[in-house]
């Protein structure tokens, strides 16, 4: 997978596409084509390569297909290589995952989309997401507590301090979890309204024993500070979950 990422980044047209998504996330093919001097087919080919490498994700919104920058593999490259190679180069990769909040003219469209492949069954991913003993190992030392029923509350605790809270909006074990989200103890989030996090968990269509986990954070138009925290935090949470399920270890720095 790392080889695919490096090969994808080696092409200047694909770097341009990533820059465009960095500047404004959730863009259509037509929009992206206006910024490159190549055929529509050529742009589609480059987008497919980026998606196969995991650097972008796509979502359907009506008849449109929207493209999003995926911060998770960039975060993994940082964790893997920052201590071995030139930090300025790695910081250039890291900059792709920063400041992703974008203006949009479409209502209710997903905003921040992160995806990761984990060598585990969907049931194992679900347990990691809902078991406080496991979440405390990859979610910034926070344990999640809930009865896991629609309309039931949940809390995220770091020791005796509650960090976040919300309500279970939809739940379909082991494939889908939708929750409202509000930070409790982060400065600057006091006036933020609840936003929404959707977890989509599905067995990979082609790779046996691999599960794709997609996390969508949206409905944060009135929660800008919450969005900034989660856009940086969720990729780390996903990387930590992957590390825990595949190795039994905690992500360095957790």
From TrEMBL:
What SUPFAM superfamilies does UniProt report for this protein, alphabetically?
A: Bet v1-like (SSF55961), Winged helix' DNA-binding domain (SSF46785)
The membrane spanning regions, by residue number, are none
Q: Which Pfam families does this one have?
A: AHSA1, HTH_20
Query: Is Cell inner membrane set as a keyword in this record?
Result: no
Q: Note the SMART domains from the entry.
A: HTH_ARSR (SM00418)
Keyword set for this entry? DNA-binding
Say yes or no: keyword DNA-binding present.
Answer: yes
Which PANTHER family does this UniProt record tie to the protein?
A: TRANSCRIPTIONAL REGULATORY PROTEIN
UniProt lists the family membership as follows:
Belongs to the AHA1 family.
Q: What is this protein called?
A: Metalloregulator ArsR/SmtB family transcription factor
